[in-house]
């Protein structure tokens, strides 16, 4: 009860801190997952570097997330487009995340200043149904605060503006326009300009001022490196649309407008030499504008407090209780003393009895080991900087490739434990290891992809990529799993420190707190408390299209989570053994695995409190992908709990004398 009460207080304090922090976030979500990208590769010459712009949109709604999986690609908004440029290819991670890059007509040369250069002019006549549909679609996009996302030299072009307390926030995107309500209240980006004041009116950002910061490379051939790319969106009606001058009032569009309208799109570019920003730290100005550090340190301190508490409890059991128990048990020489055994030694003849459904448990352990190693290696490489946000899609690509290559450990662990459980159906075991958990994930993902196809979303995975993933699974992962299972079955079984009795011991009636279900429910609270805040940032990065880069914090939380799951499971395992309940295998797996249930509950809370998702398809997509994450997290944490408890049980029964 004390553990449950203390964990509840910790979570309550964490929830309060996180809730107060969330007000500073700008919530949003991809729609179509298409980005506006400027491609500029490597070091450019003094005057010959050519910039190429690409195009796309992101749906971003202030303090409200809204998912839309219909085909809302850049060209449906009737912006300036180009057909001659070839689309850049995306890697596997980008395809899985739904990122699509499209070309656009914005081009300019290095160190060549551009002033109010026209891109194109769009003409509309509301009397024509097609033009009216384009205008209505554009107004809907501004009302929902759709945003352009640009990238230059694989860096986001940011819109930096002042926020509270004199801080500057750099947003990797800018809106296509904004809206002033019928009551005269400016929404979203309309608050930045006092000229945006007409009621029930839309204002189109049809001009951008781009500033490219660079520094000259001294130790290489004559050239320069881009270290920052910033822009400022503006709205100009232009005195003459055919010859734009970036003058006049803002480009407005009344909600009840009818007739003819021309919108001229223009841009200006200037280059600024900056010797203070190094190439390696060019992302810092974007990341430093996101005030995450304080809440991250609070999360780490909260997790460390939980770990210290559990470590103290486990140390007390190990050093005091267990030490006294073992010393007392080993001093029992007479038969009368042996007949008075009590506590966890009583079940020494049953503690290594094979569990029910040993086949399924061994398969879960194999898949969990595969996921654990994959996550550890991926986060380790991310901490070293190999999977930074600059390498788009690298995180997901690395995770998928590692999962495919780690089939051997999965097969080995599953076969080794299945053999120790006394199983003989090795073919069924290896086939289930290959296809059960990966098959459930793939089936869920395939159904989600079918929904995306049906909705016409550009985030749907192409058929060729789907075939490639199946080829990786069947041609690489499955054979490696068979190899691991071969060596696992070939090796001698795990030797236990005590013999198992032929007749199972009857388990005495348990109190409420020593029953399986209450222990499992309580066991998942403390591990979830360690990841609670970090989980908020991860969900924001997935569903709100916010940049995630704090892999150092995440790796530290990962280590703390492993320690917390292990210690919480060992603690509860000891209590149950003292109550003469020797069914520890499944309970240890489910105790730490129950953290995934709390993860699922929090994801549901996040869905109703942070997102505004309308439509059955979008709701199914959210919960479909959430179920995949919950299953992976269940296998990962459950495997940690089982191995911790297995080590603990083997250790304590190996140091006690048993006749």
From TrEMBL:
<dbReference type="Pfam" id="PF02990">
    <property type="entry name" value="EMP70"/>
</dbReference>
<protein>
    <recommendedName>
        <fullName>Transmembrane 9 superfamily member</fullName>
    </recommendedName>
</protein>
<keyword id="KW-0472">Membrane</keyword>
<dbReference type="InterPro" id="IPR004240">
    <property type="entry name" value="EMP70"/>
</dbReference>
<dbReference type="GO" id="GO:0005737">
    <property type="term" value="C:cytoplasm"/>
</dbReference>
<feature type="transmembrane region" description="Helical">
    <location>
        <begin position="520"/>
        <end position="543"/>
    </location>
</feature>
<feature type="transmembrane region" description="Helical">
    <location>
        <begin position="430"/>
        <end position="454"/>
    </location>
</feature>
<feature type="signal peptide">
    <location>
        <begin position="1"/>
        <end position="20"/>
    </location>
</feature>
<dbReference type="GO" id="GO:0016020">
    <property type="term" value="C:membrane"/>
</dbReference>
<feature type="transmembrane region" description="Helical">
    <location>
        <begin position="466"/>
        <end position="489"/>
    </location>
</feature>
<keyword id="KW-0812">Transmembrane</keyword>
<feature type="transmembrane region" description="Helical">
    <location>
        <begin position="393"/>
        <end position="418"/>
    </location>
</feature>
<keyword id="KW-1133">Transmembrane helix</keyword>
<feature type="transmembrane region" description="Helical">
    <location>
        <begin position="549"/>
        <end position="577"/>
    </location>
</feature>
<comment type="similarity">
    <text>Belongs to the nonaspanin (TM9SF) (TC 9.A.2) family.</text>
</comment>
<feature type="transmembrane region" description="Helical">
    <location>
        <begin position="297"/>
        <end position="319"/>
    </location>
</feature>
<feature type="transmembrane region" description="Helical">
    <location>
        <begin position="363"/>
        <end position="387"/>
    </location>
</feature>
<feature type="transmembrane region" description="Helical">
    <location>
        <begin position="620"/>
        <end position="649"/>
    </location>
</feature>
<dbReference type="GO" id="GO:0072657">
    <property type="term" value="P:protein localization to membrane"/>
</dbReference>
<feature type="transmembrane region" description="Helical">
    <location>
        <begin position="589"/>
        <end position="608"/>
    </location>
</feature>
<keyword id="KW-0732">Signal</keyword>
